[in-house]
Fold this protein.
Amino acid sequence: MAMNVAIDGPAGAGKSTIAKAIAKKMGYVYVDTGAMYRAMALYFLRSGIESNDEAKIAASVDDIVVSIKYEDGAQHVILNGEDVTGLIRTEEVGNMASATSVFAPVRTKLVALQQELAKTTDVIMDGRDIGTVVLPNANVKVFLTASVECRAKRRYDELVAKGESPDFDKIAKDIEERDYRDSHREISPLKQAEDAILVDSSNMTIDEVVDTIINLCEGK
Ligand code: DC
């Protein structure tokens, strides 16, 4: 049986940083499921489909092939044969991913891909519905969160480091809106699985969070 670790939580809680570090230390494959929703969102944006046009989104899902490959341990997302890894990290794509991930055909397609990956491989997978829907039998489930203020500050610092001049209040408002949408959608909303361990990273260093989760994995 493959080892499956599920990390869920809201945007900006540090899931990918933490999961990548754990994958490296433990020899697991890191699967970033948000990147898959982002790849589909990029397709919808390029096709000029509105984020709320359920009929067009449902009709185009069969034209989209999302797959994952690994190069030097890093996940690459392939959209219809094109490596889009470098194109999906914008706010526009993130917001489109949040809006279009509410639709069942989008989720059904990506959940199947995620479950297939976890079947035969030791994975640490992060997302919103991993512990609840994708890997309900995961060996370890963590719900990683942090206060809105703390998440907004991290995002703000990241953008400043990139040479941008972000607006802190706008970042905090976007995070709140995304949290609301992700946790209030009808299908597979963001929520802590009953058997998930809550980790609030607001006042923890990355190493402290990594060690906490590794201890949970080693206990299995
Ligand atoms: O983690 P992220 O910011 O890259 O995710 C982008 C959006 O994709 C997120 O706002 C909601 C959606 N998503 C989802 O619905 N289920 C997942 N397992 C991962 C992401």
